[in-house]
Write a structure and sequence with these properties.
- The complex is a heterodimer of chains A (233) and B (185).
- With 233 residues, chain A is an alpha+beta fold.
- Chain A is built from six helices and four strands; from the N terminus they run H-H-H-H-E-E-H-E-E-H.
- The longest helix of chain A is centred in the middle third of the chain and has 26 residues, at 77-102.
- The relative contact order of chain A is 0.13.
- Helix content of chain B is 41%, strand content 20%.
- The relative contact order of chain B is 0.19.
- Classes of the chains: A alpha+beta (233), B alpha+beta (185).
- Chain A binds chain B through residues 28, 40-42, 44, 46, 90, 93-94, 96-98, 100-101, 105, 108-112, 187-189, 225, 229, 232-233, and chain B through 10, 56-62, 79-84, 146, 149-158, 162-164, 170-173, 176.
Chain lengths: 233, 185
């Protein structure tokens, strides 16, 4: 948690609200832990107006930093994608609860089967993150893989300004979004592995060169339960 | 009427605990559990988890109402989208007239769990808590749970909170839960 600081180090000097160190048991109204205006995260509203959008440029800048951060000391592309995935995972866990509570009270219900969960991701999650729905939802046609589902995005927002070098052509930075999806699935007790794959052809005239498939592979116990409750709810 | 409220993570570790008493019909909001009952409460609450895990897949609602009963201890459950469980143990007082209940409470007397209690609580079914399965009580607990859920979501929105297995230590969260308890129960 809190790392020991040098007593008169530059970090303390650079802190605008630096106060002399106090005993932990000091009154509850001072210190950085308690905001001076008394407003905490609990005083804020959970619902936001629909127009609350963020700048895409600043997101792209932050995202490039995240990729750079993840790229440090990685052993390969898979490792890099895994790190991006891990960065997204906690977001998914938290968004699941946030998006559910923003639903009107009548339609607040936990997803009980795979289809409801994937619809929640395709519609609510995408709408919240990217301002539009995901483009398609597909089930694997391979009879050997009944546990695989695909969420398809023709133009992932996170990849808007990412150009992947030739020698890393397997990389898709939407692994970060895959991590968010994985977080939602794990949180809702549908443990899954989610990976991002580029499927757009690089040829001239391709309509969606950045087309990405998020492959959702559920754990066997999810399918087992699905069969047991018979897709109810 | 005393309440024991706990938030349990998907791995069944307690994240938050709070004890309080009723504030309705002249209650002072103080819990009346004996030292022994307080230890027992944790057992009773956790033992109802099996039932929650069974019910949560047949009912997509967040609020599952009263799901378990152990003598005079009733357990109401609420399951969030991320499979965090809110459990409320409530122990209705026995007496028919409220004045009597307050007298009992003032003495700090533990209310005996008798069959008579169940009969008498049916008489006084309009007051929240006297009859744990009445629609009024269910509605009151639902409101309480929803308010706690809202604050729980705010708590996990903190970037320093690692969902969903970190204890909630915020004193403001505790204040908010206590306020919801005063308001509805």
């Amino acid at each position: 948690m809190s790392q020991p600081r040098p007593p008169n180090g530059p970090s303390a000097a650079g802190n605008p609200s630096a106060i002399p160190p106090k005993e932990p048991s000091s009154s509850h109204t001072t210190g950085l832990r308690y905001p001076s205006n008394g407003k905490t995260i609990y005083h804020r509203h959970l619902s936001r107006s629909k127009t609350a959008e963020l700048s895409q440029a600043s997101f792209a800048y932050l995202f490039s930093e995240m990729v750079t951060y993840a790229q440090r000391r990685v052993t390969g592309i898979q490792d890099l994608e895994k790190r991006l995935n891990i960065q997204g995972h906690p977001l998914g866990l938290k968004l699941l609860d946030l998006l559910l509570i923003r639903e009107p009270p009548r339609s607040q219900s936990r997803p009980l089967n795979i289809i409801t969960l994937l619809h929640f991701i395709k519609i609510n999650l995408w709408q919240h993150l990217f301002g539009r729905q995901a483009d398609r939802l597909e089930k694997s046609s391979d009879p050997d893989a009944p546990d695989e589902y695909m969420i398809i995005d023709n133009e992932p927002l996170v990849n808007a300004y990412v150009s992947v070098p030739k020698e890393m052509s397997q990389l898709n930075c939407a692994a970060f979004v895959a991590g968010i999806i994985e977080g939602v699935c794990d949180g809702a007790v549908f443990p899954a592995r989610v990976t991002a794959h580029s499927v757009g052809s690089k040829e001239e005239g391709e309509m969606w060169p950045g087309k990405t498939v998020f492959l959702v592979k559920f754990q066997p116990e999810v399918l087992e339960r699905e069969a047991l409750i018979g897709g109810k709810g | 009427m005393s309440y024991y409220f706990a938030i349990l993570s998907p791995l069944d570790t307690p994240l938050f605990e709070h004890e309080f008493g009723t504030s309705k019909s002249g209650g002072d909001g103080q819990p009346r559990f004996t030292e022994q009952a307080r230890h027992l409460n944790q057992f009773i609450l956790h033992s109802s988890l099996d039932i929650v895990e069974e019910l949560q897949w047949t009912n997509g609602q967040l609020y599952l109402k009263v799901i378990d009963k152990f003598f005079q201890n009733y357990i109401s459950a609420f399951v969030t989208a991320s499979n965090v469980k809110f459990l409320l143990l409530h122990q209705p007082t026995t007496s028919v007239p409220t004045a009597n209940a307050n007298a009992n409470a003032a003495n700090g007397a533990v209310v005996p769990n008798t069959a008579q209690a169940a009969a008498s609580s049916r008489v006084n079914s309009t007051s929240v808590g006297a009859n744990p399965t009445s629609p009024q009580t269910e509605e009151a607990i639902k409101n309480f749970m929803n308010e706690v859920y809202e604050n729980y979501v705010k708590a996990i929105m903190s970037p320093f909170y690692k969902a969903p297995n970190m204890e909630i230590r915020s004193p403001i969260f505790r204040q908010r839960v206590a306020a919801a308890g005063r308001k509805y129960l």
